[in-house]
Amino acid sequence: MIGLPTTRPATLALFLAWSAACLAQPASAQHPAACGEVITIATHGNSTTRFTLSIPQNAQAGSKPIALVLLAGGSGHVALDEKGCAQALKGNSLVRSIPLFHEAGLTTALIDAPSDYQGPDGLEEFRISPQHADDLGRLISAVRAQTKGAVWLVGTSRGSISAANAASRLTGPDAPDGIVLTSALTVGTSGGRKSWTANTVFDLPLESIRVPALLVGHAKDRCFRSPAEKMRGIAERIGSTRKQLVTVDGGPGNVGPVTLEACEGKSPHGYVEQEAEVAAGIARFIRGGDF
After folding, report:
1. Which of 29, 122, 136, 250 has a CA 20 to 30 Å removed from the CA of 10?
2. Confidence band (pLDDT; 50, 70, 90) for 247?
3. Mean pLDDT for the stretch of residues 44-67
4. From residue 267, how far is each of 89, 110, 163, 185, 247 by CA, in Å?
5. Which 3 state secondary structure label does DSSP give 116?
6. How many CA atoms lie within 13 A of 109 on its CB side?
């Protein structure tokens, strides 16, 4: 089992408490949080971004830690409260799977939308921007500084755009060690009322992704933005030497038509009743095996 540190060094905690003036360094909550430690960092412009860092207590010491930076779909605004718990997008597959990742000994960092993208549409077209990739690079560095181990990006649905954006643009110490895309957005709405609904992972330089990549879709996904058969196009374009494309089947299914409503989390799009299977497969791939 991968081992993770269970506490932060006291000296670092004290330093961060009085160093609030330097937002580029994590500024942590003063008291233990119910869902994890709330950390705020400076991001693009004058914005800030918060995330909840949660380190499982069942970690085995002595092995290299692995952390998952979780990028939810939809607006991306999970509305973290002061205890680090999501108040929005609770049905998102990654939010629901956090306990399962912890059971597998993986640290999680649940990312909220930046302070200037918390309206009804959330991240909008910002998901494909270089500034968003830079912000995620800062988050990766902050998580890596806390955990002293590998950091993977995991994005689902519209969050797959954010993950692919960062993985295709970042290099050096800010880059992720690997990437996982589930129910990736491959179909946009051209000419829609809101221009950002046209955005998909194909808007990004996927050929530049060189880190290990796992792509997961569901055969019964009826969300018209993420048909499982289009995941192959992502796999073909990604430049990674280690990559795996997986199509999950089974589960309660969805016999309805292909619609936007089918893009909800508690459906095949979100691997409902198959969360444990998907989380276990992700953990195996991250540790060097097959899904």
Report:
1. 136
2. very high
3. 86
4. 14, 21, 22, 16, 15
5. coil
6. 29
